[in-house]
Design a protein that fits this description.
Layout lengths: L1 H22 L10 H8 L18 H13 L19 H4 L12 H7 L15 H12 L18 H12 L4 E2 L2 E2 L8 H10 L1 H6 L17 H12 L6
Antiparallel strand pairs: 1-2
Helix pairs in contact: 3-6, 7-10
The structure holds heme C.
The site of heme C has 22 residues, from helix 3 and helix 9.
């Protein structure tokens, strides 16, 4: 009897093991929550930008395109779904239909954003600021080329007013302002940016963490140095400095 019991036990053990084996079609992956990982490893990081533009050269990809995409390429305006062929402002080729190289005052793109009263983006959207209009003008004067170089950056430069706010203005505010708060998020001023930063969502979205909508939407990921500036600013308490 003992032997029969023992072998029954043995057989059922094998059946159990085989049965379990055939049920587990997906490998078991133990995931460490990304957030926990991030919190632990948040410290001041030191990164210098590489592939820099030659001195004075405006980067189409890193300066002009982010301004146009975040301020103009919206649903109902100049994104791919809404705009008719020539008014798509998300890529070099179609942007160039509105630009006359070397001649800002013959470029409808430049005239639209610099006119008084401002024509684009239409009120009540926040107009481009002086610095942004100037960079677009300089880019056109330089021949309006598809330059893809990076702008100077050191991740240890992390002042809100000198580094962080301009970064947000150039890449985010067009899509995240009170009159166009996509995803319910406005990034119009220090307070709103600091709130998002301290919640962890700002760094998670620009670092393309799993579970977050990758930001800036429709644009290249920020460079490691730019993300580093924001991380360093957050590590120090996201101050208004
Ligand atoms: C072209 C428009 C556009 C630009 C540019 C943009 N966003 Fe967004 N953002 C959105 C939309 C739309 C959503 C809502 C989610 C979605 O549809 O992906 C969103 C959502 C978010 C969210 C919430 C993400 C989540 O999954 O919880 C954060 C945070 C965010 N944006 C931050 C930023 C930051 C920071 C920048 C600039 C570096 C930026 N966004 C640039 C359109 C934009």
């Amino acid at each position: 009897m003992n032997n029969i019991h023992a072998s029954l036990f043995f057989v059922s053990l094998i059946v159990l093991i085989l049965g379990l084996g055939s049920c587990t079609t997906d490998p078991i992956v133990i995931e460490i929550p990304a957030e926990a990982e991030m919190e632990d490893s948040l410290s001041i990081i030191n990164i210098m930008e590489t592939d820099l533009c030659e001195t004075g050269v405006v980067s189409f990809e890193r300066e002009v395109l982010p301004i146009l995409v975040s301020s103009c390429a919206h649903a109902g305006c100049h994104d791919e779904a809404s705009a008719q062929g020539l008014k798509i402002l998300t890529e070099f080729e179609t942007i160039m239909y509105h630009v006359s190289p070397n001649e800002p005052t013959f470029s409808s793109l430049y005239l639209a954003v610099s006119s008084d009263p401002v024509y684009m983006p239409p009120s009540p959207r926040v107009p481009l600021n002086e610095g942004q209009i100037q960079r677009i003008e300089e880019w056109i004067i330089q021949g309006a080329e598809n330059t893809m170089c990076n702008t100077p950056c050191s991740s240890t430069d992390r002042s809100f007013n000198n580094d962080i706010f301009p970064l947000i203005q150039n890449h985010c505010i067009g899509c995240h302002q009170p009159n166009n708060a996509l995803g319910g998020i406005s990034l119009i001023d220090y307070e709103s940016i600091a709130n998002l930063a301290m919640s962890g969502d700002l760094l998670a979205a620009i670092s393309h963490e799993v579970g977050y909508s990758p930001m800036p939407k429709l644009l290249n990921k920020l460079t490691d140095c730019q993300i580093g500036q924001i991380q360093n600013w957050i590590v120090e308490g996201a101050q208004n400095n």
